[in-house]
Amino acid sequence: MKTVSFEQLVGEVMQAVGTQPSPARSVLEAAIEQMRGHLAAGEPVELAPDIMLQPSAGVAVAEAVEGKVYRILLVVGAVDFFTNTMVQRLTGPKTNVAVAEGADAAWKKVESETPDLVIVDSTVDNPRELVSRIKETKGTSLIAVVRIYPEGVDPNAVDGLRVCEDESLAEPFELDELVGLVEDELTRKEDEEAFFDHEIHFQLRTTEQYVEQANDLIARLVDQVQMADENKAAISVAFREAIDNAARHGNKNQENRIVDIIYLLDKEKATITVEDEGDGFDTEMFVTRGREGNAVAAARERNQAGRVGGLGIMLMLKCLDDLEYNAVGNLVKLTKFVA
After folding, report:
1. Which of 49, 57, 105, 301 has a Cα at 20 to 30 A from 332?
2. 211-257 residue pLDDT tens
């Protein structure tokens, strides 16, 4: 039995509708991605009255996706010999590589072409701004981002508020390292696209200025969600309380300590985790009393013991659909359903 290749389908679609290869390829890739998601969720896909894909056919769709050509965008300060070397090394049967000079040109390509992966070279001006724009924007946040750092710069250092790339390399490095990282990131991206609509990880030093910047960032993220305005306000209020607790009670307002935040959006809910570097606290008592409406008594006991807090948990519980702490008490997960 003959197997029809993805490239053959692209050619046939191009001839049938009289379009160029790029639009035909984009439409087919998008259709396959959507079918894969529905099948993974156990939903049959009716392509035509006489063609039905059942969830058990997901393997066939996955194989078709494996045949796609991934789009990689390499962002540099200026094209040089090493740029061409990287392009040659990264280009293969399943990968096409485009080059953009500068963050502004790169963002225009990201908006218009939505590559699968972006590599931000160490020669780019304002690389943090480009990473932030990609990750803050719902339509582009799932693009895998690999950032290359100059020699001597710590990729994990947090200076202010930092929106994190997905992976990083520090110069000098072997091109094989970059190729391996790209392959891993493309695989991860395929897996996470089946579950998430928006994903962003950011970190900040514990100062009032950066805490406010984090609140503003969450407000921008939540504003992109299709949910009622009162629900947007509720999760923003809960986050403000959570990060304030992390900064004041967890990190004791010590600037050298970090608050780590992950925002995830799927079809059903928005989830925010806030983690500090403190020692934690007895969450069970405060969460239980908050659910029972006895947070005032808990706060009074805490105040008599020379500590503060307690009422914030009741506030968060009223704003959210679910509130969870880890066993230590230095990580809290906020959940709000979209509907």
Report:
1. 301
2. 999 999 999 999 999 999 999 999 999 999 999 999 999 999 999 99
